[in-house]
Structures are given as C-alpha cells and as structure tokens.
Design goal:
Blueprint (H helix, E strand, L loop, with lengths): L1 H5 L6 H12 L2 H13 L3 H29 L3 H11 L7 H33 L8 H13 L1 H21 L2 H29 L2 H9 L8 H14 L6 H7 L7 H29 L10 H12 L3 H35 L3 H22 L13 H27 L3 H8 L3 H31 L2
The structure holds phenylalanine (PHE).
C-alpha cells in the first residue's frame, strides 16, 4: 500500500496524457520501428502494424489503463485485488508478474540503446559526423559496438538518469519536462522529414513504407508487427497499468487511449519518413537492424547546415523520449517492491535500477564478447528482445483482454469505463473476440509455419 500513498495522483488529465504519451513515444518509435519496417519488407509490415495498433493495441491499452485505475496498486497487486473482487482465481496475478518481470528485462536492454543515444550526442558535438560517408558512419557505430567498456559506461549513465527521476517521483520535474520536450521532439522530427524530402529519395521511401507487398508477409513478420505495436504502445509490461493506478476516476480512459495511440503512431511514421529517404539515397542496407538510425542519421547531420546543432539536439531529444519511456519501465517493479517491502521509493528505485544495470551488461556483451553465443540463431540481446517483445507482451495483452472481456461483470466495466453505449459496445466486442482471437491466431499460425509447413 505504501506505493499508493506515497505516490499520489497525476496533477491533471493533461499531465497524465503527456506522461503516457511520453511512455509510448520512445526508442520504439524512432529506433525500433524503422529497422523493424526495414527488415519486415516495408508497406505490408506498416499496414499490419497500423491494424494492430488500432484494432488490438488501443483496446488493450484501455484495458490495461483501467485495470490499473481500478486496482490502484502495482500490476501484481492490482490484478490480484481485482480478481478477488470479481471472485476469480488468484492465478490472474500472473499477468502482473509477467509485466513486472518483462519490464525489468526490457529496461535492461532499453538502457543499453539509450546509452548509444547518449554517446551520439557527444559524437555530434565533437563533429564526428562532419561530412561523414556511409562507410565511415557504419565504422563509427561498429567501433562503439566493439567496445564493452564504452557501452557499459553509457548504459550506466542512462540507467542512472532513469533511477534518479524515478527516485524523485514522477510528478514535479518530469511532468513539466515532458510537456515541453515532447512537442520539441515532434517539431525536430518534422524538420528532419523535410530535410529527408529534399536531400533523400522521398518517393522511394514513401512507396517502400506505404505500398504493401504481401509476398513478403510471413507469420513471423506478422508477429514482429504485433510485438512492435505492443512495444510502441508500452503494453503488456505493467507500465500503463502502473500509470493508470495514479489516475483519478474523472479521466476518460477511452479518449486518452485514442490520443496516446494516435500520437505514438504519428511519431513512428514520421521517423520512417525521416530515415528511409536517406537509406535509399545512400544505398544503405534496409535490413541492417538495430544500427539503422545510428548509421543513417549521422550522414544527414554531417551534410546539413548547422548539422552539429541539429544532430546534438536530435539525439538529446531522443534521449529524453527514451527516458520518459524508461521511467515507465522502472515503475512497475519499483511499485511492486515498495508494496511488498515498504521500501522508500528511493531505495526501491536504486535496487531495481542496479539489477537492470547488471542484466544489461549481457546485452552489451551480446554485441562484442558474446556475439557468437547464440540460441537458435539469436544473440542474447535478440533473445531478450524476442522473449519480451514477441512473447510476453502480446500474451499478457491477450490475457488482459480476456480478463476484462470475460471475467469481469459487464456492469462493473460500464461503471469503470464510463463510455457511451456505442463506444463501449465496440470496445467490448474488440476485447472479447478480436484481440484474443487475433493474437492467438498469430501464434498458432506461427507455430504452424515453423514446425509444420
Ligand atoms: N513504448 C516505449 C517505446 O516505444 C517502450 C516501452 C515499452 C515503454 C513497454 C514501457 C513499456 O520506446
């Protein structure tokens, strides 16, 4: 209970929305979405992604936020409490456990990538991108990946920032920072899109991103798109549930979810439009994976006027976008630890932060010392990413949808959500049938594709 008392409510609807958008908009949009789209073949991936965001992700977001608001506890505490109130099995708390564990794992690698971003602020300032060629940009990134010490230090820097903010509590400083910085990121991204339209091959990028080629679609690509939509909306890891637990009853969860999903999607699409024109103009490898933005963007910054400033500013804003997400990744386990042990917020944040730092070292090593250490072709980083993004997040989302759709009295839902009849019916249909069936189908077909076909 300590958490709920110590960590009161959002100061207004607006700050809640900004914080939730802050959680949703992050490395997932600007770093992950473009490389996933590149590897997934472009248009068909993007189309599936959009479908998943609005038909599955948004209703699950409503479910996750409202479970948190009703429970007013950590994800584990909330699931248990609501299951009890509804006379359901206490096994439903496993959904909360999966979130707490999953957010811990995601944070461990998220912080490593956050560290890359921090280091790129400095690279930009010292002029490392000046007139850089595509090869040199690749080499610059490669040098960083090859050095465990450099990466560990930046990772330590990023996780420390995250711990610091969470230890202080999210309201005061963070709420304010987010309201200024998120719009700034948006504006810079638009500036980059304009630059890409002028300097890059915009037409080819648009056709790559928006012309679906369904011959490239497999069920593993569909699962990637599903996982990406959950990752980007911060679903299934208890982050949104924890944010929902700080929410008062007078905020419309449905409307908030639509705003969050729309803003998040806009940022992802803009990132794609900023990056792919350069990828095509410079003949870069579309499927180069996690390094994509770290190799493409420096080329743009190295050539534009005031590139040093734009570059530093862009990576700085990206760090901020990442931090407003990473704090929401630290929250679920911190709120659980506080609830369980009565630790102060500071002590809980430091303990969990230290744990994720240690685990993150494995991600660091997966790019150098342990690069050859693979399971089923996956490095440790790939494995963590696959486990959380492709398995835990969609499955937890599916169970949240099932729980809300089938295990809570309709009357209680109506009261909690306070939606108009029409919207409620649509949402109810989506969580009862569409979400579980679609997520389930992706998994079943994937297994079929892998083992039978
Ligand atoms: N949505 C965040 C991003 O796009 C990542 C995240 C996932 C944050 C899950 C919280 C929970 O970067």
């Amino acid at each position: 209970m300590a958490a709920a008392k110590e960590h009161s409510n959002w100061s207004s609807k607006w700050t809640f929305i900004m914080a939730a958008v802050g959680s949703a908009v992050g490395l997932g949009n600007i770093w992950r979405f473009p490389y996933e789209a590149g590897q997934g073949g472009g248009g068909a991936f993007v189309l599936m992604y959009l479908g998943f965001v609005f038909l599955i992700g948004t209703p699950v977001l409503v479910a996750e936020l409202s479970l948190g608001r009703r429970g007013q506890l950590s994800p584990i505490g909330s699931m248990l409490k609501i299951a009890k109130e509804e006379g359901r099995s206490s096994a439903w708390q496993l959904v909360g456990w999966s979130g707490v564990l999953g957010s811990f794992i995601v944070l461990s690698f998220y912080s490593v990538i956050g560290g890359w971003t921090l280091s790129y602020i400095i690279q930009s300032i010292i002029g490392a991108f000046d007139g850089i060629t595509a090869e040199a940009a690749g080499a610059l990134f490669g040098t960083m990946l090859a050095s465990p010490v450099t990466m560990i230090l930046w990772h330590a820097g990023f996780i420390s920032l995250t711990m610091f903010i969470v230890a202080k509590g999210v309201e005061g400083g963070l709420e304010k920072a987010v309201t200024i910085l998120m719009p700034a990121l948006f504006i810079l991204l638009i500036a980059l899109v304009i630059y890409a339209a002028v300097a890059g091959d915009f037409a080819q990028a648009v056709s790559f991103l928006f012309k679906p080629d369904f011959s490239k679609v497999t069920f593993s690509v569909a699962l990637e798109a599903l996982g990406q939509s959950f990752f980007s909306l911060s679903l299934g890891l208890g982050s949104m549930m924890t944010y929902g637990s700080y929410l008062k009853k007078d905020t419309s969860v449905g409307k908030s979810a639509v705003i969050i999903a729309s803003a998040d999607t806009a940022v992802a699409l803009l990132a794609g439009l900023a990056i792919f024109p350069l990828v095509f103009a410079y003949n870069l490898d579309l499927s180069s994976g996690p390094g994509l933005i770290f190799v493409t963007l420096p080329i743009a910054f190295g050539q534009m006027h005031f590139g040093v400033i734009f570059g530093a500013l862009f990576f700085a804003l990206l760090v901020i976008a990442a931090i407003t997400s990473s704090i929401s990744l630290l929250e679920p386990s911190v709120s659980y630890l506080q609830e369980k042990t009565g630790y102060t917020r500071k002590k809980a944040a430091l303990s969990i932060g230290f744990g994720t730092f240690m685990l993150g070292i494995l991600t660091v090593f997966s790019f150098n010392l342990l690069a050859d250490f693979t399971f089923a072709g996956m490095t440790l980083f790939d494995l963590f990413d696959f486990l959380t993004n492709n398995l835990m997040m969609p499955l937890a989302g599916m169970f949240m949808a099932l729980f809300m759709g089938w295990f809570i009295l309709r009357k209680n839902l109506l009261e909690e959500l306070a939606m108009t009849e029409k919207w409620f019916k649509l949402w109810y249909f989506l969580v009862r049938f569409v979400c579980p069936l679609a997520i389930g189908a992706v998994f079943v077909f994937l297994l079929y594709e892998k083992f039978v076909a």
